[in-house]
Amino acid sequence: MDPSELQQLVVNTLAKDSVIPDTRKLVIPGAKGQATTAEDQNAVISALASLASRDIVSYEQHDTFTYFLTAEGAQIARDGSHEALVWAAVPAKGSEEVITIKQLQDQLGQTAKIGQGKAFKNGWVGKEGDKLFKLVSTIVDTTQEELNEVVKSGTLKGGEKAIAELRKRKLLEQKKSLWYSVKKGSAFTTDLRKPETDLTAEMLATGSWKNSNFKQYNFDADGTPTNGGALHPLMKVREEVKGIFFEMGFAEMPTDAFVESCFWNFDALYVPQQHPARETQDTFYVSSPAKALSPPKDYIDRVSAYHIHGSPDGASRGYQAPFSLDESHRLLLRTHTTAVSSRMLYALAQKSKKEGFKPAKLFSIDRVFRNEAVDATHLAEFHQVEGVVADRGLTLGDLIGFMQTFFAKMGLPNLRFKPAYNPYTEPSLEIFCWHPGLGKWVEIGNSGMFRPEMLEPMGFPPDVRVHGWGLGLERPTMIRYGITNIRSLVGHKVSIEGVEKSPAVRF
């Protein structure tokens, strides 16, 4: 039926009866009887929505549930339930005829396996050894009766409990049907001429606009979606973290060099050349070119001396192990952005020699690379957030206080600190925050005060201390967006639709 004809049918019916209590009772011309099918009701709601937008009618939606048999349910309605068939196949107690469980299964197949337990539970069948026998002379097959009732009426007098049991046994399926009750709207009319959408020059000239019916604007309608680009959730969190650093007076370090030398990545940070982190199972080494340009000779000599012998005043004994320049010149994909911090701190120390020391606050956010197996929470390539603060007389208490302020701005106010070991910081602290969703403390970062063995070769004054800390960017992003598998956040499995629809993040 044409939509306009259906709309006219609705308003004509309302003009006659004032209300339409059930749209399933509407008789649609050209259709077979009343509008009882889902297809009919889809056409009705389309007509009602159009009329309601003009306040000609108002309507309420109702639903009802009907039930129909599955293929197995239809078979039981015809032949009887599995338990009834088991009872029928078993001889009476005391009979000369004997049937074993295996013989019953050979005779009835899958029906025996399904119905045997029910027959025992109902008290219809008993067992002596491996032999089965009837316990009652007659039974009432309630399951078959209920299914036949559904066939006749589409529902059950036994109510929800009986329906739930049959659905649990996969004998019934449920179908939801929608229908509507309709009444007159504030602008009810049987004249459904299409309202004007434009005010024309002709209307103004003739004055016909005064008697015209204009379509109202729908200010609640969605506008046309824009096709602009969208930031990846990881980049949204990155920009928000950057904003926190800038708010706290930090300057951003340049991080465009993914390839780094072992000297800046390890040696300058006082990481021993025998440390397991340098093994190929943890680090990606570059095969060509394999060697880096040499750092300043006087600096590499001082670093080498601190590694081998410790500090000149004897406060540190170093590692008492060989130091290889060939190892220092090996190229790798940086394993942490602390390699950038070591370069920047060395440059700050050299500037301090010429112009005097000035406190500094630096940060970086960029990719690092680890030779790790990829799983739901680990990637071989990920982002690290790094911050350093250099000033005179800094203490561990200053570091803890700064961490509390920084992470509170990230929306993580509940922190705990645990002593840890890092080759280039002492003391070192692991940072934990309370995760309400997981109900436990989760490690979110690492921090510490850079060791004198790292700072003294750079040339810093003895009273200068440097705080350093770092955390991954992916974990807070996963928490913010409810992502459980990191491979859904980075890589070829990323949902483009998810990127477009992800909300802005605010800490």
From TrEMBL:
UniProt-listed GO biological process terms: phenylalanyl-tRNA aminoacylation
Sorted UniProt keywords: Aminoacyl-tRNA synthetase, ATP-binding, Cytoplasm, Ligase, Magnesium, Metal-binding, Nucleotide-binding, Protein biosynthesis
Entry's Gene Ontology molecular function annotations: ATP binding; metal ion binding; phenylalanine-tRNA ligase activity; tRNA binding
GO cellular component assignments: cytosol; phenylalanine-tRNA ligase complex
Domain of life: Eukaryota
Keyword Cytoplasm: yes
InterPro entries for the chain: aa-tRNA-synth_II, aa-tRNA-synth_II/BPL/LPL, Phe-tRNA-synth_IIc_asu, Phenylalanyl-tRNA_Synthase, PheRS_DBD3
PROSITE patterns cross-referenced by the UniProt entry: AA_TRNA_LIGASE_II
Protein's UniProt keywords contain Acyltransferase: no
Domain Aminoacyl-transfer RNA synthetases class-II family profile: 236-503
Entry's localization field: Cytoplasm
Enzyme Commission (EC) number: 6.1.1.20
Family named by the database record: Belongs to the class-II aminoacyl-tRNA synthetase family. Phe-tRNA synthetase alpha subunit type 2 subfamily.
Name of protein: phenylalanine--tRNA ligase
Source taxonomy: Eukaryota, Fungi, Dikarya, Basidiomycota, Agaricomycotina
